[in-house]
Specification:
Length: 191
Amino acid sequence: MTRARRGYRFVAPVERIGDGKDEIAAESPSGAAEEHGGVGAEPGAKLFGRILASPEELPKASHRVVQTLFVLLQLMYLGFYVGALANLAEIGDLFSPLPRAALAMNVLIVTAAILIPVRAFVLCAVLFHAPGARGNFLKMWPFLMPFDELWALSPFLLLHHINFGLALACLTLLVYSPFAQRSLVLMDGGQ
């Protein structure tokens, strides 16, 4: 606080009390950071804070429904990775007209190989009700989101089997998938 008095400027001292948790709770509406597993402490919270839904803006859902939908999304991504790695020759044919086909193949192989164990970890954490699974996923989410958005292009890997329009329609749904995962975690009324 500053006050001007007779040409002098006085600055009131600011004192910090506590270990920082009060600041996190004060930043989010009604202290939601503490109530929702440290959501306010989520990496990238400032960047996405105005775009993403807060826990208060989402409906509560039963743990069984949330867990089922979340597990199905993780299995979908595992299916993408395993399916792509199982059909590298066919995907190589699709990538061959691209200017940097070798780079695209390397990105596909490396991201699939890295993300298979990540999805297995997330699946096990959710299925076995690991303590802190919610907070861990929310911490991982900003790092998973770019990969999920990249893999939203995966329907185009099926162009030998489906037409361009169907692949585009699937892409538009898959672009929302990372946000749906985060929303499901925040909607879980059982944790």
